[in-house]
Amino acid sequence: MANIVLEKxxxxxxxxxxxxxxxxxxxxxxxxxxxxxxxxxxxxxxxxVSGLLKPDSGKIYFDGKLMNPVPPGKRGVxxxxxxxxxxxxLNVYDNISFGLKIGNMSKEQIDKExxxxxxxxxxxxxxxxxxxxLSINDMQRVALARSMITKPQIFLxxxxxSNLDAALRAVMRAELKKxxxxxxxxxxxxxxxxxxxxxxxxxxAVMNFAIxxxxxxxxxxxxxxxxxxxxxxxxxxTINFFEGTYKSGAFNLNDxxxxxxxxxxxxxxxxxxxxxxxxxxxxIRPEHVKLSDSKSGxxxxxxxxxxxxxxxxxxxxxxxxxxxxxxxxxxIMASGYKPKLGESKWLEIKEKDLxxxxxxxxxxxxxx
Length: 368
Ligand code: ATP
What we know:
Layout: E1 4-13, E2 16-26, E3 31-35, H1 42-50, E4 57-62, E5 65-66, E6 77-80, H2 92-101, H3 107-120, H4 136-148, E7 154-158, H5 166-183, E8 186-191, H6 194-200, E9 203-208, E10 211-216, H7 218-223, H8 228-233, E11 240-247, E12 250-253, E13 260-262, H9 268-274, E14 279-284, E15 290-292, E16 302-310, E17 314-321, E18 329-334, E19 344-348, E20 355-358, E21 364-367
Parallel strand pairs: 3-8, 3-9, 6-7, 7-8
Antiparallel strand pairs: 1-2, 1-4, 4-5, 9-10, 11-12, 11-14, 12-13, 14-20, 15-19, 16-17, 16-19, 17-18, 20-21
Helix pairs in contact: 2-3, 2-4
């Protein structure tokens, strides 16, 4: 059993605030991802949990026990970093058993544990090989095996897959998830890759500039992002944002000549109540923007095709409003879609797919 509570953690390096007032609760056996751009404070948070860094203020509890005074080696935490250390002068077996030999385990028990973790990570056939001859992928597995063999209740992974190429990353991602579920360790996984966070984590903590933006399930992070930053950080290609104003049941978008999106009257009161002023940002994800030859639905927005990328399973189309060639509107169309460059299209969007943000606070005010 290992639940983790972080309470108002603060850490600065000189004038640089690395983590500001971070409070998080991670349930026993939960897999959470710390997600955010470079320099937002992910690694600093991880290092405070492991005990390698002391917070300036705030508290860290494991299962209700205050961890601040407990040294790293006594916290029961296993970790693996981006630049994993595998001893190339040892063979795979000795690398994996390295952590156990420091303890007082019998030779038979060590053998059992090494074989068990090697089975989980599918590297039993490599056990007698020298680590110096391993591929990067296998080295990664050995490093993971070495961190896992001590069976820590809490597992901290800092960008563990970032050295792998895309295909291997996808394979390891699926394996990591399976292993974590099998072992039931409470896991914190640091990444700046939204796909990794979305596919692996039970909950994602999105950080920016040392501040936690949102802590929620992948589904809610995608569907109910707390603000413009979170909405923009999740999704590929990124969400479309259109600045505009709201008046009497319609959004008028600045970058379009005739830029109206009309919404059902049932939302009128709600929108008036929620907006402090009329300036808004309307968000719509590319997968919810379709290009049509005839006007339909709630929008009268018109665009010209600028370019497109046929990606096999889908086609990403880049357009711009007739009146403003500098603004890019992204649409995901079906596989094989072949528009003519410069051709005019209507944007077909549905009310239920709109996100409405307050332009000043940047907060989400309404999901239709
Ligand atoms: P990355 O993904 O690039 O590793 P991160 O989100 O993990 O970034 P941190 O490494 O936690 O971010 O850094 C947060 C901020 O604190 C950054 O501005 C960084 O430059 C600063 N910082 C981190 N460690 C130190 C240090 N030892 N000394 C000085 N500044 C530091």
